[in-house]
Each structure stands twice: as structure tokens, then as C-alpha cells.
Design a protein that fits this description.
This protein is an alpha/beta fold and 450 residues long. It is built from 16 helices and 19 strands.
Length: 450
């Protein structure tokens, strides 16, 4: 018996070096301006060409401004990185979706929306949240800079094969509960190290009933459990999503449905969850595993990490986050920067105004998402509510180009990480779903959507 992961992996096996290390062929390689320059330098120094530029896709996303993208970039590091990416792509014949291009956006948003991400593939990128693409029944994982060079040079990568973990979720999610609440709930129960050494498959009726956008959110944050990546078997939902995309016209329903895991016994480890147990979930600490239901109290843990996290966050044990005043809301990132996320936000804030003391920042994941927002009339809804809409980019997810949170202030964020300083030196990040973030923006405090 084999898991879906094993079937895809074994199909791409080029060579077994030893019990731990294997060479795997790569179907699609995504690159961006931050982790690719050193890899290209390595190739250029050795006089090596990119083996399959047609299977490599580049975009500018991490360190880009989200305002005035048609003007000269003020940040020197950002300007150099983007210039270097263009130079390297021109030299090696790689398609680049730079600033201003209609296909530009966050790498893990544009790959799926263009149909470049397809079932059965192995996909890599020099970014940990490459796991997002696993929502399409792919094996997708982040790689280091030296491995980026390997893939550019050989369209393969030297890596260890992880074990397999099944997380099965059954039941119907309650009103206002999203896939973001679900994955935060799972991580809070299992911890940030539970998935170390494993590749996760998410399955069960709850997952099967999710949209592709919601599935991407779940797979995106599988990495926050310490896992190598996460995937969800492709199905009719996957096919319906891909059949209209630019580069996936040849994908068939049969292709989406034929590759499945053989059974629960094929996995090295299995964990089950009930969707009815999931409530609106937020983080209170400095890693994604420190999460609780909004109405719950922070429970004391006797360890230094817990103590230091609460000190950094300005919180105390036995405290409920419900009612906590906040100063910022950030809606965007590769976790929740898709049109479905902004639709959910608009449904909450329509006819309302954000709290006067709150700065509400919305950053679409791509130009295509921004176009959808405008064509659906959501831009007017956001602006009427006092929300600020930006151009695509990773933005405040990692405090790039001035899109940051001041020290000591709270930001309810739909991104994926709440590490110390992640959104700015001293910034206090509370991870949440787009719906929870929207309620917080209106009320100026953490609010239970229910």
C-alpha cells in the first residue's frame, strides 16, 4: 500500500544515493528576487546554464513596494534585488512576471491562479510556504539557496524522503469558521514540532468540502507544524478550478481523480479531528502553535518560551483575547491574499466603518486578485469602510518596504507567522482568519464573530 505522497515521489525518483538521500526530478520551479541571486551567481561562476528555463517561473513578490509600483523603487535593497532578478532571467531565458505585469503577484498565489501548479507534480521554490501548492495534489516544498542552484542546473534536487502523516478532519465547520481557524486549531493542538520529518496529507469530509482557496490556506500552514509540506488529493473541485486557468487547459477530470492514497494503513502516523470542535481561533504568543479559541483563557505553561512570549506580547496567563484593543489589521499574504478572502472581508464590513484608531491594510496576493476586487465592486466597499488597498506583494507579512507594525502595537494578521519582529521590530502579531480580522478592524478589538 502507498500514500499519494509516496506515489508521486517514487514516480519522480532519479537516483537513490543512500538510505537517507535521493535525487528527485522537478516539474515546476518557482523563483523570486530574495533567494535566487546567490543561486544564479553559483551557476554563472561555473559557466552552467539553466537546464529547463521553460519549467522555471519567476516573479517579484517578497521585497517589493505595495505603492507606486510604476515609479522608481526607493528602497535600495529592493531595487537591487529586482534588477538582479531581471538580469538573471533575461540571461537564462526565464519567464519573469515583474512589477506591473498582469501576472505579477506572490509566487504561491500566481502559480495556482495561472494553472502552472497541477496534480501529480513535484514543485519547489526557495520559500518555505511552497507547501501551499500541495492543495492541488502535488508534492510541493521549500528548498535552500544551494538547492535552488541544483534545480536550476539539473531540474532535480538532492534531498531526503520524509515519512507520511495523515490528518483527517470530518464534520461541518460552524458559521464564521474558516480553513484558517481549522489549521490554527490543529497546530495549537499538535504543536509546531509535531510534523518534523513528515509530509502531511489532509483528508476527510471537511477537507473535501473546502474550496481550492481554503485548501491552499491549510497546506500553506502545514509548514508551521514543522512538516516538510502538506497536500490534499485532487478531485472534481480541483478540476473545476483548473479547467479555466491559462496553463492548465489540458488537465482532465480523470487526471485529478486517479491518484489517491491506498488507505489509512499506508501512513506512518494518523491523527483525527472533528470539525465541530473548531472555534474562531487566534494566536497569543510568538509561534503559530500558541493559539486559542477567542473566548478561551490563556493557559499557563511552565516553560521559558511561554513566559518570554507573553512578556513580548504584553499579555498575561488566564487572560482572554476577546476584547483586547488592537491598532492594526493586515489582510493579505500567500495564506489569505486570494479573492475568496477579500470577499469574506467585504461581507463583514459592508455598510460599516473601521474603528477610528485602527489602520486597516489590504494587500491582494496578485494583480489578478486586485482586478477581481475592482470588477466585483469590493474596492468601493473597502474604501467606504476606511480600509487602505495596496498593490500586490508580501508586504506586512514580513515587514517589507515600510509595510510594518510599530513596536508594542497589536496587529491582527491573516498571514502565517507571528515570530518576534516578523512584522517589525517589537510588533505584536495575532494570527487570525480574514473574517476575524474584519470584525477586529470594525470594533477596534478582538471580537468573536459568533
Amino acid at each position: 500500500m502507498k500514500t499519494l505522497f509516496d506515489k508521486i515521489w517514487d514516480k519522480h525518483l532519479v537516483e537513490e544515493i543512500d538510505d537517507q538521500t535521493q535525487v528527485i526530478s522537478i516539474d515546476r520551479h518557482y523563483i523570486h528576487e530574495v533567494t535566487s541571486p546567490q543561486a544564479f551567481n553559483s551557476l554563472n561562476e561555473k559557466g552552467v546554464a539553466v537546464m529547463r528555463p521553460d519549467l522555471t517561473t519567476a516573479t517579484a513578490d517578497h521585497n517589493v513596494p505595495t505603492q507606486d509600483q510604476d515609479k522608481a523603487i526607493k528602497n535600495e535593497l529592493s531595487r537591487i534585488q529586482l534588477e538582479t532578478l531581471k538580469k538573471n532571467c533575461d540571461q537564462h531565458g526565464i519567464e519573469l512576471y515583474g512589477l506591473g505585469h498582469e501576472n505579477n503577484g506572490i509566487v504561491h498565489v500566481i502559480g495556482p491562479e495561472l494553472g502552472l501548479t497541477q496534480p501529480g507534480m513535484i514543485i519547489v521554490c526557495g520559500d518555505s510556504h511552497t507547501s501551499t501548492h500541495g492543495a492541488f495534489g502535488t508534492v510541493a516544498f521549500g528548498i535552500g539557496t544551494s538547492q535552488v542552484a541544483q534545480v536550476l542546473a539539473s531540474q532535480s534536487v538532492l534531498t531526503a524522503k520524509p515519512k507520511t502523516l495523515l490528518i483527517q478532519v470530518d464534520g461541518e465547520l460552524n458559521q464564521y469558521i474558516t480553513s484558517k481557524d481549522l489549521i490554527l486549531h490543529i497546530i495549537s493542538r499538535l504543536g509546531t514540532g509535531f510534523g518534523a520529518g513528515y509530509f502531511i496529507e489532509f483528508a476527510g469530509s471537511t477537507i473535501a468540502n473546502m474550496s481550492m482557496e481554503s485548501r491552499m490556506t491549510v497546506c500553506n500552514m502545514s509548514i508551521e507544524m514543522g512538516a516538510r509540506g502538506g497536500l490534499i488529493a485532487a478531485d472534481a473541485v480541483t478540476y473545476e478550478y483548473l479547467k479555466t486557468k491559462k496553463f492548465s487547459q489540458g488537465v482532465s477530470l480523470q487526471q485529478c481523480e486517479e491518484m489517491k492514497s491506498d488507505g489509512i494503513e499506508a501512513f506512518d502516523k494518523v491523527v483525527k479531528f472533528n470539525a465541530h470542535d473548531v472555534r474562531p481561533t487566534v494566536t497569543f504568543g510568538t509561534n503559530p502553535g500558541m493559539g486559542i479559541g477567542i473566548e478561551d483563557q490563556i493557559v499557563t505553561q511552565d516553560n521559558d518560551t511561554f513566559t518570554k512570549s507573553l512578556e513580548y506580547m504584553g499579555l498575561t496567563d488566564r487572560l482572554k483575547l476577546e476584547g483586547l484593543p488592537i491598532q492594526h489589521v493586515f489582510i493579505g499574504s500567500c495564506t489569505n491574499g486570494r479573492f475568496e478572502d477579500f470577499e469574506a472581508v467585504a461581507a463583514v464590513i459592508k455598510g460599516n466603518k473601521k474603528a477610528a484608531h485602527v489602520r486597516a491594510l489590504l494587500v491582494p496576493g496578485s494583480n489578478a486578485v486586485l482586478k477581481q476586487i475592482k470588477s466585483a465592486g469590493l474596492k468601493e466597499v473597502f474604501e467606504s469602510a476606511g480600509f487602505e488597498i495596496r498593490q500586490p506583494g508580501c508586504s506586512a507579512c514580513l515587514a517589507m518596504n515600510g509595510d510594518s507594525i510599530p513596536a508594542g502595537e497589536y496587529c491582527v494578521s491573516t498571514s502565517n507567522r507571528n515570530f518576534e519582529g516578523r512584522q517589525g521590530a517589537g510588533a505584536r502579531t495575532i494570527l487570525a482568519s480574514p473574517i476575524t480580522a474584519a470584525f477586529a478592524a470594525i470594533n477596534g478589538k478582538i471580537t468573536n464573530p459568533n
